[in-house]
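Subject: sequence -> structure tokens, single chain

Hey, anyone have a minute? Need the predicted structure for the following. Not urgent.
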Amino acid sequence: PQYMLPQHVVLLDAIPLLPNGKVDRKALPKPSATHQDAAERLAPRNERERIVLQTMERVLNLPGLGIRDDFFSLGGHSLLAARLTTLLSREFERTVPLRLLFEAPTAERLAAAIEGLDGSNAPRSAPIAHVADRRSAPLTPMQERIRFVEELHPGRPTYNAPSAHRLGGPLDVQKFKAALAMIIERQPSLRTAVGPDPATGEPAALIAEKLAYELPVFDLGALPEDQREAELVERMHALAARPIDIHRAPLFHAALFRIAEDDHAFVFVPHHLIWDGWSFDVLQSELSTIYGALVRGEPHGLPELAVTHGDYADWYAKWLTEPEFESQLRYWKDRFANSPTPKAPRTDMPRKAGMSGQGGAHWINVDKALTERLREIGQRNDVTLNMLTLGIYIVMMSSIIDSRAIVIATPVRGREAPELEPVMGFFNNVLPLSFQVDPGLRFGEFMRYVKQELIAVMSHQQIPFERLVSEPEFAERAQGVGLYQALFSFQDARERPRDIGGLSHRQMHLPQRGATDDLGIWLMDKPQGLEGAVVYNADIYQRETGAAFKERYLELLRKVAQQPDATLAALSAPEGSESAVYLQRLAAGAAPAPSAADAVAARPAQAQ
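Reply:
Had a minute. Here:
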């Protein structure tokens, strides 16, 4: 079928092999673009087109492109798009909005659009100034909200962000420990705690100059072989559920478990105050590079960080006082003033004071064939897989709530400056996206509408969600329904290292025990397909309801793959679906809706 055809075909005289007879993948040449014949491929005609095309080739890792090659048709996705625009912002010393690439996805059109920016009065963002040996920094509004909740309810693992990694092959424990110590030395966020600023007494991020950390190692090899996995799972879950004291660095737990001589598990549980989803990518990349270099006896070659999260927090505090901040805030006020108010989702149990923060999760696995089919449908409709899966989620939640108007929150990376790419820290913001669902629309028409709405907000994503909920217009709107009805998070993880310094690597499921939202789905795009989870607040939803949300979403993914031209009404029809019937019964109940206080406190957790 079309969606399983390779995007690139490279002819070789022979496949390079390793001594053991397996394919030497590292020796395979990079594929060249086949979108156009070489004779049709147009070369750059000026310096601006040359810079844009060269940067696009670097981001896509595809040499020999032409100025009319489409970035998204050649495998570009949201993450690579963000990387391309940040690099171009540095090249042209001008903020290149992400929306510009979606509107002009070829080097020819993008170069012309950037030239148009130069002729406009669009503000230039001030560069992030680096302060060497920084020992304190202001908390961002996002960090301040979490600090407030943590000090209000200390001793809970709500904001722990666990990850677990199975490592195969001969592991040098001392070099692995040394690699982690070098990362802690490189990344100030791993040496950060929260406390009073020495100068002002206000809560601040306090950064230790040095941090002595010894990675604990637990040997499970003495246990009977059939008991090791159960013991490993129990210990991993205990580590993930252990509270983190935000006033003492480091704000993470970690452990290395030895299951057998060539079988280990590394568990890393950072606090959300210092961590976001992209930080996991940075951790895996640096761990692979540094550990691999130590094993080979070579320098790791990673450059020092140009800026830190503390530098960014300082810059962001100043940005919140600038005219561009007021302009973006006005945009969000106008946007929500012109959108209808949705209904509140029903819950299994009434909402009570003193919520426990406990959550539940149901894992999602979408195989590679279905994932690629959905990606192909997205390309046919000129949208990314991220947009497509979000659109399906919007249709599902609108049907469940029985409301044509709905607001879905989605995290954004918040790393618009290219020098922030290799920095660990909490940069995420969340955008409340308002949609209207017309059941009579065909799916392709609806996806074009979703794309337009997403492009519209891309240039206004720096306003902290915490500021929006404090504005009178938003607080009033949140009365009884919350500022958003559900969370959707998507991360492209296909570029994460397949190995850690020569060790085979496999991500292990380690659920987050806390719930900072009522309901959400997070997905990760991996080489073997989509993985993720439905996460729910266990104080108000039963486990069976979480399972029904998961099954209903998977049903709709399969329906779209089978009927990509159907209407939204046909796709969301409940015939033959036990999960749809279950959720319809829930929607018909009389459970209480969220209070305004709950809406203000709501904030999405970050998927690993």
